[in-house]
Write a structure and sequence with these properties.
Length: 236
């Protein structure tokens, strides 16, 4: 069964007297374990799609189902619980809290959990180690490089072990070498079975994905399947 099922997803925004149509009638099914790339020019609806997948904004029509749950039929409160349990978000402007250490930033998603403080710290430290920042736990964001800050943001998205990671231009502000390291980290997570949907306009990232959809004017105009199923070999 697909982990994510999107049907006839449509989103309009009211912009003064205008109505901007950001997505029209999108249909998409994403299997568990997929690393999906979402590409397309600026304004094509990529972030809108990610926001709808993440339960951040309501669709004008259509639906989003994740693991069989119809996201927008949940009450706001239940949807917030669902987000905490199911989703990890990574954004380009990684939104780290400047006066909190790397460890404290990563502990934030655990704030409402019933874990003891010592356990929250242990989980956060483990995931920071996982992204290669074992010796940066007590650093503030400003004491870290751009790539390290992005890795803290990834650690924060991973700390509650969400089945789905949503990333919006996570390498958008990084130089190409650092960007590659961040993509390697995502790719490692993907090899471990993590489902990831990543918005990017960097064509260099294309090779990392299993599957890429291209948006234009709120519609899917092209799709590439980078890892087609290899047909089983017949015996001679
Ligand atoms: P992308 O991420 O591909 O650059 P977006 O999803 O951000 O594109 O935007 C798609 C379209 O929707 C654009 O025309 C944008 O101006 C419009 N849009 C996005 N968010 C809003 C908003 N909050 N209010 C009004 N218009 C919006
Ligand atoms: Mg965007």
């Amino acid at each position: 069964m697909a982990l994510i099922r999107i049907s006839e997803l449509t989103k309009h925004f009211v912009n003064g007297a205008d109505c901007v149509s950001a997505l029209h009638g999108l249909d998409l099914a994403i299997e568990e374990g997929t690393f999906l790339g979402v590409m397309g020019p600026s304004g094509s609806g990529k972030s809108t799609l990610l926001g709808l997948l993440g339960g951040l904004t309501r669709p004008s029509a259509g639906k989003v189902e994740i693991d069989g749950i119809d996201l927008y039929r949940l009450s706001n409160e239940k949807r917030a619980d669902f987000r905490r349990e199911y989703l990890g978000f990574v954004f380009q402007s990684h939104n780290l809290v400047p006066y909190l250490t790397a460890l404290e930033n990563v502990m934030l998603p655990l704030a409402v959990s019933r874990l003891k403080d010592a356990e929250k710290k242990r989980f956060a430290a483990e995931v920071l180690e996982r992204v290669g920042l074992k010796d940066r736990l007590l650093h503030l964001p400003q004491q870290l490089s751009g790539g390290e800050q992005e890795r803290v943001a990834i650690a924060r998205a991973l700390v509650n072990k969400p089945p789905l990671i949503l990333a919006d231009e996570p390498t958008g502000s990084l130089d190409s070498a650092t960007s590659r390291q961040v993509m390697e980290l995502f790719s490692e997570l993907h090899r471990e079975g993590q489902t990831i949907v990543m918005v990017t306009h960097n064509r260099d990232n294309l090779d990392w994905f299993d599957r890429t959809i291209f948006l234009r004017d709120g519609q899917i105009v092209e799709e590439i399947n980078q890892r087609p199923e290899t047909p089983a070999r017949e015996c001679a």
